[in-house]
Amino acid sequence: MSNPFNVLQPWKPGDTRELSDRALKKAQLEGKFDSYAQVYLLEGQRWKVLGKVNLPSGDTVCTLVCVNE
Hints:
Number of strands: 5
Number of domains: 1
Structural class: mainly beta
Number of helices: 1
Oligomer: single chain
Largest sheet: 5 strands, antiparallel
Helix content: 10-25%
Radius of gyration: 12 Å
Strand content: 35-45%
Shape: globular
């Protein structure tokens, strides 16, 4: 069965996901960003920003890739 919402998905290196810029800023404030390695620590995995898209609404959506380096 496919998991359309990526809820409790067993992430592995190379997997991608999208999060809002707001969610990433919140993660930074919660101490879930390693500024030296430039990775976010989310759901037990390490994620790097692969790209950003600015939407017409003014919101920004970031694509993250699981690196676990």
